[in-house]
Amino acid sequence: MDNRPIGIFDSGIGGLTIAKELHRVLPNESMLYFGDTAHLPYGDKSPETIIGYSIAITDFLLKNNCKAILIACNSASSTAYDDVLKRVPEGMPVFNVIDPLISYISKRFHAEKVGVIGTRATIGSHVYLNRTREADPSIILVEKSTALLAAMIEEGFHDNDISQAVIQAYLEDSRFEGIKALVPACTHYPLIADEISTYFKHQVEIVDAPNIIAEQVKTALAEKNILGNSSEANLHFMVSDLTASFQKSAAIFFGEKVSLEEKRLVQ
Ligand code: DGL
After folding, report:
1. Residue 161: CB partners within 8 Å, gap ≥ 6?
2. In what side-by-side order are the strands of the sheet with 205-206?
3. For a tag on the chain, would you pick the N or C end, based on fewer CB atoms within 10 A?
4. How far apart are the CA of 204 and the centre of ligand 1, in A?
5. Looking at ligand 1, which residue's alpha carbon is closest to its atom 2?
6. How confident is the model at residue 154 (pLDDT cuts 50, 70, 90)?
7. 113 C-alpha to center of ligand 1: Å?
8. The model's pTM
């Protein structure tokens, strides 16, 4: 048993969708969440910049006694995972949000067509395409950058006419015809999963990324024998730039009221 917190980070508050599911699956785990709101969006930044931010946050989480790191951001997972891994003490688990999804797709969609949507950084890295090809070359993977969606969701546009129109504009793409599943490869997208499913008339599986990721973290911590057993898990949420708008949206992403604390890492 190990009751030190799991360190989780994202470019902002989108990663709270993963933190929320992790807390549901592992209610006895303490978590230290860091949202780099001073630097978001990561999705439009260069790999070098995202790596620099990710390393600074990793150092902060390590200083705060975290037992494992979860990169709850596709943009950072696709560009900075190897650098974060090199930064932590040997043997410390580092999780990204991509490996569990590749493993899920490759087990379930042999010889099928699968769509992936995400930020420019994630799609531009072609990490889903390359990794899926390695895992099962029979899967036809169609990638599309849907850069507007994260900002749209953060602005509170979901479950309304505007979000439906934007979703349609991105998804009515002939390349998506015949897909069996769609991977929402951005931690903001679980908030519009139902709308995407409705767009596809519920005929396409919208991959439940938060649950798949949380279950993988649970299995890995159990294998290493470092699960927590706190009767009162400590949930600590920090952001690098605190505004009333982030405070308000955080409750929507986490599904309950959260109190954000400001901590500036880079000047
Ligand atoms: N949370 C980020 C991701 O999963 C999206 C937001 C951003 O571009 O920073 O890619």
Report:
1. none
2. 140-145, 113-118, 181-185, 205-206
3. C
4. 23
5. 73
6. confident
7. 24
8. 0.96
Question: Tens digits of per-residue pLDDT, 22-57?
Answer: 999 999 999 999 999 999 999 999 999 999 999 999
| 66 in active site | no
Domain annotation for the chain: domains and CATH numbers: 6-96+211-262 (3.40.50.1860), 99-209 (3.40.50.1860)
CA distance 202 to 129: 24
**Pocket of ligand 1 from Cβ distances under 6 Å:** 10-12, 14-15, 40-43, 73-75, 119, 122, 150, 186-188
Is the peptide bond between 100 and the residue preceding it cis, with omega within 30 degrees of 0?
A: no
Structure tokens belonging to residue 151: 């900002």
Q: How far is CA 89 from CA 84, 136, 146, in A?
A: 10, 32, 36
Q: For residue 42, how far is its CA from the centre of ligand 1 (angstroms)?
A: 6
Per DSSP, the three-state class of 189 is helix
Report pLDDT for 2: 95
- Position 266 scores a pLDDT of 65
Alpha-helical segments (H) within 88-208: 99-108, 120-125, 127-135, 148-154, 161-171, 193-199
| Residues of the chain above pLDDT 70, percent | 99
Which of 16, 57, 70, 73 does the annotation list as catalytic?
73
% of the chain with per-residue pLDDT over 90: 96
